[in-house]
Design goal:
alpha+beta, Beta-Lactamase, globular
């Protein structure tokens, strides 16, 4: 019998969306590794304990900081942002967040 925690882990690892847990210091605590590697080139080892802003396009910093602050205060932000791929180019992502 599969436990509920295991079911959640299976679902998170099988979906085709990037799933990340970012702490209050803007550092990665969790990523669903397979899809992160597929879309960004980074493994969980590359990302865990690294600051999100290391991977955000410079022109998107203010937007990310503003939306992250909103998330911590009240709302669930939606934003489009450019993340740096491991190969050096940027990819556009759509982001939705929840304050856990």
């Amino acid at each position: 019998m599969i436990k509920s925690g295991e079911i959640n882990e299976i679902i998170v690892e099988k979906i085709n969306d990037l799933v990340s847990i970012i702490n209050q210091d803007l550092k990665y605590e969790f990523v669903n590794e397979k899809i992160h590697q597929k879309l960004t080139g980074y493994s969980s080892k590359d990302l865990i304990d690294k600051e999100l802003l290391e991977f955000v396009h410079l022109e998107d910093y203010k937007k990310v900081l503003f939306e992250f602050d909103n998330l911590l205060q009240t709302s669930i932000p939606y934003l489009e942002v450019r993340l740096k791929h491991k190969e050096g180019h940027f990819i556009w992502i759509e982001s939705n967040g929840n304050n856990l």
